[in-house]
Amino acid sequence: MKRVTFFINNGEISTDDGKTILQAALENGIDIPHFCYHHTLGIDGNCRICLVEIAGNPKLVTSCTTPAMEGMKVLTDSIKVKKGRAGILEFILLNHPLDCPVCDKAGECVLQNYSYEHGYAHSRLEYPKEHFPVKDLGPDIYLWTERCIKCSRCERFLDRISGTGELGFFNRSVKTELSVFPGKPIDNLISLNIVDICPVGALLDKDFLYQARVWDMKRTESICALCSAGCNIEYWDLDNRLKRITPRHNASVNIDWICNNGRRSYKLTDRDDRLTEHKLRGKKISLDEGIEELINFIEKTVDKYGVESIAAIGSPWLTNEENYLIRRIFGAELGARLAVLPTRIEGKDLPFPDGFTIRAEKAPNARGARIAMGLKGKKGRELDGILQDTKSGKIKCVVVFNGDPLLSLPSEITIALRKAWFVAVCETVPSGLSRSADLVFAGNVSTEKDGTFTNYDEYTQRIRQAVFKPLDSQPEWKILLRIAERWHKEIKASNPSEIYSEMAKKVKFFKNSDFNLIGSKGMYCKE
Amino acid sequence: MAVKFEPMLTKFAHDPKQKKIAAYIRHGGYKAAEKAVKSFTPEEIIEIVKKSGLRGRGGAGFPTGLKWGFIPKDNSKPVYLAVNADESEPGTFKDRLLIESDPHQLIEGIIIACQAIKSETAYIYIRGEFALGAGILQEALKEAAKKKFIGKKIFGTGKKLDIFIHRGAGAYICGEETSLLNSIEGKRGYPRIKPPFPAIIGLYESPTIINNVETLCCLPHIILKGAEWFSSIGTEKSKGPKLFAVSGHVKKPGVYELPMTVTLREIIYNICGGMQDEKRKLKAVIPGGSSTPVLTLDEIDAVMCFDDIKKYKTMLGSAGVIVMDESVCMVDTAINLTRFYCHESCGQCTPCREGGTWLLKMLESIEAGAAKKEDIDLILDVCSQIEGRTVCPFGDAMVWPIQGFISKFRAEFELHIKSEKCPVEKDRGIRR
């Protein structure tokens, strides 16, 4: 493609032919204030804040609409530009209620930032402002109409990204207001993204309304565990309580979006009935006692019935490292039979017009679990075999690492596995299996541990611990490492990063990768 | 004023039968269209119109032939002609006359323009309030279709041309060419970002030419009488006959067809019979529709052509001349116009949407005698923050008259503030 070279504030910039000044500037890390331009929503040119001066042009131009030309000299901070920009900001703030102290967006509001950075300290308006009511736009969203700056990002999102088109502008002039059509609320599965792209506090999430100030919360980069898409997200917690989830940009995975269910998924793990202690037949025990009990039973059973009588089951809700440890400890070192729990399929994949897709496979690590476990055959064949042999009494002892925080296991699995003499389960919430199991370990959900997930596309990404784990519960990798410590001293690892290095040595898929190189954007591990 | 000037566009405007195709043909109609369809190539028509020096009559005065030439040569999409009949500028009512009294002249112009730009579909975007005109045009289209001047196989050739009438819904902004296109497409009347210009990507993402009604009405006469005849009228850069819509305090307001060598003084005192009330002095004249800056008594010797009038920091615009005598308060007039522009601002881009109402509130406080001395400079500053910063020229159209009134009549604004009330003895005639 043809490249053009031009200058911004005397710095040379090179960009693809046809790109506008603003696009080229943003690509090169130069910030020109902008509201209505969004890289996924295209150019609209309505906010006019991105004014720049082009040498030889008497008029200021909007950088979002002006294509970069060879040799062009652009000034983004001349006195003329500063005055023009401040003028636009003055207009935008003219009828804005300036209620930052009670606005949820305060602290992450683009208008607030620009106003401090580029605006006038005083308003020259001496007349009453325009007033509009707060509107209920649907099950998830409120519109603070007065705060709206009419940048139309939300309208364009609903037109182009979700393809549902619920929002529109009504009336004209200063009375222009955003609204839904009568009887047609905003009710689609990715609607809440418009709250994120709103540069001001006009569109607000009902769920997060008045919950916390954004500067008080801690942010943790992670991956959504709700489906196999592997959307990049950020957990926001206030004093160890998750308050909201927002999407992170990742062009190879979720672009800039997440679905509403993913956004609410933090609630699924924040439950009162979480397993908080390890139990042996209903009695509280320590982790080490539990491990001792498990190992003793397995050793006795192996002596008597051979390794064929032992089965270990991993899960698509666990990280690659954990599944790998199950394979290493129970499969490679002991020789027990291995399987992975089935993923849950709900309906069909739901693609949206711009390519963002909600996956039907409701597990975050279905691909990774099979790869880390080294399972090559037809999906589910190993598990079917184990269930059959447990029913027939061939398998005496099963160790299940469940990890699914949402739903207990399908009843046919529970019923079959109960037939074993000794059932050890690691779970996060009580299920039919853990209620009847001999040994129960309290595990952790994905918000409480570190590790990696590999999505449907075999793209591997990091998850990170956002909140503390409840009481005695331990992340599965830690429980597994404790078993290894007691049993196989040669596994030398003390954290997910080291487990990953071990795994990279043994599993071809992860051969050329490194835990710390995955970073926040993820990577394709395939050679 | 040229001695031998004979009206062409409005020659038969007073004949009520002219609406009928029979009368129009009897007066020599559709000969030019036939000539254009049968014996000229598109390039030849463009060449003739370029040579004639015809400039767009909608307000900007862009050379018509040049505009036609902007359609990409390697274009494979259909080409559209959009006729801008959304005449909504306060003080302008020339197109209305052409549409209502001589609809076939416009249709013939459309046929010629479509030959030049190789278009087979034309849309007449007519202002919603022109219900009468829309009906007359519809009737005329039917007659023309019956005669096979439009439709399939026009004039017995293999060419075809469909003309549709699209009635607006009463928004001034839809007279701006790109929001006109959005409106035809069924979208909200928001102006588009330029570039791309409509000649490249216009209606339905295809090359589109937008021409004013009066511009198109000139075409039959250029084709019949030749480019030389057309360019012999008027000044060096403003050729051909021009319609002037005169309103306000003159004895004979109306639409007059004149060459662009005429001065404002001649229009007011010779053609329109002088001031309505001779005891009152002329105070101000808006020369080209409400968005052009005002002229004072000392400036009425301005020649009404596209270029000369720029010396007075105003424009010919759509040539809607509004004459005001000394009973008119300039602050009041500014309020009247600003109220119109505030109401019609489409709301898309920030400066015009927010700034307009602020300006209106400030002007109203001056009129009410509640303003401070600094407010005049604040108004000018706000104007400068709007001017040239908007998506379409609407922002300019809003602030130019205000800037004009303040620069020419600043003393009157100051007097309002000093005496804390409006000092002008008003004739309530034009208020609200």
Question: Can you describe what's shown?
Answer:
The complex is a heterodimer of chains A (527) and B (432). Chain A has 16 helices and 25 strands. Chain A is an alpha+beta fold and 527 residues long. Among the domains of chain A are: 3-92, Ubiquitin-like (UB roll) (Roll), CATH 3.10.20; 278-524, Rossmann fold (3-Layer(aba) Sandwich), CATH 3.40.50.740. In chain A, the strands form seven sheets. Chain A has a seven-stranded mixed beta sheet with strand order 15-14-22-21-20-16-17, sandwiched between helices. Chain B is of the alpha/beta class and 432 residues long. Chain B has 15 helices and nine strands. Chain B has helices at residues 21-26, 31-39, 42-52, 64-68, 94-101, 103-117, 131-146, 177-184, 213-225, 227-232, 264-271, 330-344, 350-367, 375-386, 394-419, and strands at 80-85, 121-126, 162-167, 208-212, 241-248, 254-259, 282-286, 295-296, 320-325. In chain B, the strands form two sheets. Chain B has a five-stranded mixed beta sheet with strand order 6-5-9-7-8, with helices on one face. A four-stranded parallel beta sheet of chain B has the order 3-2-1-4, with helices on both faces. In chain B, strand 7 and strand 8 form a beta hairpin. In chain B, helix 12 (330-344) runs antiparallel to helix 15 (394-419) and helix 13 (350-367) packs antiparallel against helix 14. The radius of gyration of chain B is 22 Å and the shape is globular.
What multimeric state do the chains show? Answer: heterodimer
CATH architecture of the largest domain in chain B: 3-Layer(aba) Sandwich
CATH superfamily of the largest domain in chain B: NADH-ubiquinone oxidoreductase 51kDa subunit
Question: If classified by CATH, what would the architecture of the domain at 278-524 in chain A be?
Answer: 3-Layer(aba) Sandwich
Number of domains of chain B: 3
The radius of gyration of chain A is: 28 Å
> Whole-number average pLDDT of chain A?
91
State the low-pLDDT regions of chain A, or none: none
Which structural class matches the secondary elements of chain B? alpha/beta
Distance between the termini of chain A: 29 Å
Uncertain regions spanning at least 5 consecutive residues of chain B: none
What fraction strand of chain A? Answer: 15-25%
Distance between the termini of chain B: 36 Å
Please, what is the average pLDDT of chain B? 94
User: Could you say which overall geometry of chain A the principal axes of the C-alpha atoms support?
Assistant: elongated
* Largest sheet features of chain B: 5 strands, mixed
